[in-house]
Every structure is written in C-alpha cells, then in structure tokens.
C-alpha cells in the first residue's frame, strides 16, 4: 500500500506513533546548506511543528504536495525560509490560503500538487525563488531532492540539518511493472531511484530539481530506497497550468 511521504513524519511528531513500512529520511543523502542547494527550499509547519517541504516560486507563493494541505487549516500552517537548520529562526510567514486541484485524489494521489499564497512576501538573506520547469528530461537523467526528513528509522525527530540526494529517472513502464498489483501510477507522475538513495517521510512536498528548475514534487512511495519500489513524484509539466492559475488568484 502506498504511503504519502509526510505521513509517518507527521504521525510521529504529533501523535508519537511509528510505522514499520516507511524508512523516514532522505536515504543515502548528504548534509548540505541552503546556499548550496538553493534559497527557494522552504519548510512547512503545522502549529509550529515541521511536517513537509515546499519550493518558493514567487515571493508570495509556495508549491508543495496537495496531501500536505488537504484537511489542514490554513491559519495553522506557517512557512519558514532562509534556513539550513530547523533550529534556526529564519523568516516565517503565515498562510493566507492554499489551492488544491479538483482532480486531486487522496487514494491515488493523482494531481498531488498544492499552491500556498502567503500573507506577505517571503524575502530575506539567502532566500530566492525557482522557476517552473520548462526543460525536458529523459530516463537516466539525474534530479536533486532536498529536505529535512528524519534520519533514522523509528526516530520521531526530523533532521535538524538540511539534507540532499540525487535520484535517477526511470522509464514509466518500469515503474508501473514494479507497482503492478499494489498501486496505480497516474498520468501526473514520474518515477526515480538510485541504489540506496531516495526521498522519504518528511520530504513530501519538496522540490525535485533539474537544470535549476522545479520539475517535480515529492509525492509517495512504498518504503524508501527500496530497490523494488521506486519513488513516485508529481510532474510539474503535468500540473503547470494549475500552478499558474493558482498564482494569479
């Protein structure tokens, strides 16, 4: 059964529970800094508790995963930018509202994209924005994912230090065969993996970067860095029109 990649993170942090199916971390990644990966990387907090990632695409808009937003009160979500460590104060902005596509499905995670409009612009030292993807990619290309997912299985605490990993794109048919009989891959997704490396719980909503553009969104997977089951990501190419419409609202 699929698991959205923030689920264990949020459950552990808010309820103190653990799951045996997800290994909650950027697996096989390395520690990094915001200046090294890009000042567009932000984190989402619910009642002050970190639970998802996001990408700043304008000074007032963040792209994340729909499953990081659906069912949550906008007034209780804040966005923090300008930090390499969660313990740093950075720049924090409240959420004015968020947008989720009508086609989003909580069961299949089809159209797993959300756009947050902040109450005021998120600006400051080291904070930048990232353009939406306009480049094409091919199986075998490498993309980069960064986030603060927890670093050890069963640990309820996220990584204080930002971490990053390179993942390799694979053919959709290969991914479909891997999940056959377990889950369905929708048209809005692509898959990637690298031996022993992957995004995982707590990294949901974070950006997948290719040629310095936002080309994907961390969505879901079965386990993490599991050789049998690749990570599944929302394609920004597929949801670009929704993102642009939401920014204009």
From TrEMBL:
Residues 1-20 form the signal peptide. The keyword Disulfide bond applies. GO terms for cellular component: extracellular region. Residues 26-248 form the Peptidase S1 domain. Its main location: secreted. SUPFAM superfamilies: Trypsin-like serine proteases (SSF50494). SMART domains: Tryp_SPc. One of its GO terms (molecular function) is serine-type endopeptidase activity. It comes from the Eukaryota. The keyword ATP-binding does not apply. It is an enzyme of class 3 (hydrolase). It catalyses: Preferential cleavage: Arg-|-Xaa, Lys-|-Xaa. It is found in: Secreted, Extracellular space. Keywords: Disulfide bond, Hydrolase, Protease, Serine protease, Signal, Zymogen. Its EC number is 3.4.21.4. GO terms for biological process: proteolysis. It holds the Pfam family Trypsin. Belongs to the peptidase S1 family. PANTHER family: AT26814P-RELATED, POLYSERASE-RELATED. This is trypsin. It comes from Drosophila melanogaster (Fruit fly).
